[in-house]
Design goal:
By secondary structure, the chain is α+β, with helices and mostly antiparallel strands. It has a domain of about 40 residues. The protein is built from one helix and two strands, in the order αββ. Strands 1-2 form a two-stranded antiparallel ribbon. β1 and β2 form a beta hairpin. The N and C termini lie far apart (about 40 Å). The C terminus is likely disordered.
């Protein structure tokens, strides 16, 4: 477990920052469980707010969209191994 205290202006910005950091870390390590990423308010650290929807999809994948999204759930983006560039053709 890594606990990394960072302050954000509000819950929305905290979730955006946490999603960005988690996706970046997941790009480098398969040990990151995006579905378990949460944020808390500094004065109420017992209440965790999920960052990703993480609902189980019919194909067994997990929804990679933010919590409280308005479009249908969608699976995880395919991951590129570290050091491989994306195909731009």
């Amino acid at each position: 477990m890594i606990h990394l205290p960072i302050t954000a202006l509000d819950l929305l910005r905290a979730r955006i920052l946490a999603r960005t950091a988690a996706r970046l870390l997941a790009h480098f390590s398969s040990c990151v469980d995006l579905g378990e990423v949460t944020v808390t308010r500094e004065d109420d650290q017992d209440v965790h707010h999920r960052v990703f929807c993480d609902r189980l999809l019919a194909n067994g994948a997990r929804c990679a969209l933010p919590t409280e999204h308005s479009r249908p759930c969608g699976g995880r983006w395919p991951r590129q191994p570290y050091g491989h560039s994306h195909d731009t053709r």
